[in-house]
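Sanity check

After download, print the first record. It should look like this:
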Amino acid sequence: MQKINIGRTILAGIVAAVLLDLFEFLSNGILLGPQWADSLKALGVPPLGPKGIVAFNLWSVVVAFITIWLYVAIRPRFGPGPKTALIAAAVIWLLGWPLGMVAALAMHEVPRDLALYSSLLGIPEMAIAILVGASLYKEEPTTAGRAATAAS
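Expected structure tokens:
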């Protein structure tokens, strides 16, 4: 089994995180921003401030890195490429978006339509960010592979 290429994993994670942050800003900050503001206002919660924005940005970074790590971890079983990247993205999307909304929905903190739209917008966000990030990942060559390359 080949070793994980840590440098490429970090690069892929950074690229995926930047894209995911951008997509989350566009979807939840711009497109759904007014609905989120109304939802917070209905709860008597002040609008999202700088600390909240930083928290959501960090959340996107963590999600992207975990998803890229999952992609790297499942490559030996599913093979490298877009299909495996989409499997990793789908698993983390399911855990992070719809399942992440369950508690807020159960406590009536978020309207159902807002939870649905936010979750559905997460699908292309994750797919694109992880496909691009995963495309940058390459395995480290094995010792035998390096020796064969050097011999030729």
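If your output differs, re-run the checksum step. Summary of this record's structure: The two ends are 23 Å apart (CA to CA).
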